[in-house]
Amino acid sequence: MAADKTEQWGNREVGAEARRLGADLFGVADLAACAGLATDPPDLFAGFRRAILLGVRLPDPAVDGCVEGPTPLYYHAYAVANQALDHLAFDLARALESRGHRALPLPASKLLDPAAFTGHVSFKALGRLAGLGWQGKSLLLVNPELGPRFRLVAVLTDLPLAPGQPLRNRCGSCTRCTDACPAGAIKDVGTEAQYASREEALHFDRCAQLCVGVFAKRPHIEKPICGVCVRACPWGQKRRGRADPEIEAKKGRSGRKEGNAALRS
Questions:
Q1: Chain segment 103-136, per-residue pLDDT in tens
Q2: In what helix (H) or strand (E) does residue 30 lie, and over which residues does it extend?
Q3: Which residues contact 127 (CB under 8 A, 6 or more apart)?
Q4: Helix residue spans in the chain (DSSP H)
Q5: 243-253: buried (b, 16+ CB within 10 Å) or exposed (e) per residue?
Q6: Taking the model in full, what pTM does it have?
Q7: Which residues touch 247 (CB under 8 Å, ≥6 apart)?
Q8: What single string gives the DSSP state of each residue in 112-176?
């Protein structure tokens, strides 16, 4: 049956559709707040008002295996999550267009510049604006419930959904990702909002050299990925038997475990 184009779709309806399609996270970023954010092509946002951010969680056992680098099982989970996000974004865009709205699904994991490790736009930057998490010291987006153990995709749309608000950074003095990084790339520099550049937070060349020169050449690892900082973040670990990582960070220790869910819609 064709969609009723007179039906009003707001955050509740779009979020419900996204979750029905398989999203674990849903948020909305106001593209008017994205001034200065690099995009490829430069006019990527033209004609659109919002970015809908969708996330799917990575299986804990796959992430937990990344003690010193990526494993074939982690790569498999990573690849399948990206495939699922591409289908999810495509289907949500079709649902929006069937109701008379413009919608453009962006690819979940497409490097347009492999040397710079950049795609159409930073989903982490959009996810922060959508209120899905804060930018951690590893540059990963850290969600209060899932930590960094998820993958993101975006759908651009002209539907004027209510945008989310950025979350307070809650990394504190935790150094778990810094200590775990096999490349020694994380500088242990915090931010209240967003880093001015990747180099402010990372020795990015160290991270890239290890991922490209070593990890991507391992058997059954087909991409320059790592997973160690994803595993190390206390916000993504199971809560049972461990303290709130924010409390641990305030005590000056390397935090232990996850806090409260704060999924925004």
A1: 999 999 888 888 888 899 999 999 999 999 999 9
A2: strand 25-30
A3: 27, 29, 53, 55, 133, 141, 152
A4: 11-21, 60-64, 72-97, 123-129, 176-180, 198-201, 204-213, 228-232, 245-250
A5: bbbbebbeeeb
A6: 0.87
A7: 255
A8: SBTTTTB-SS-HHHHHHHTTS-EE-TTS-EEBTTTBT-EEEEEEEESS-PPP--PPPP--TT--H
243-264 pLDDT tens trace: 555 555 555 444 433 333 333 3
Paired tokens of 158: 């002209």
Give the residue from 66, 86, 84 showing the smallest Cα distance to 74: 66
66: tokens are 């990344």
Nearest in space to 239 (alpha carbons), one of 98, 37, 60, 6: 60
| Residue 27 and residue 164 in contact, taking contact as beta carbons nearer than 8 Å | yes
The yes-or-no verdict on residue 6 having pLDDT over 50 is: no
Pairwise CA distance, residues 76 & 61, whole Å: 12
Entry field: residues in the chain? 265
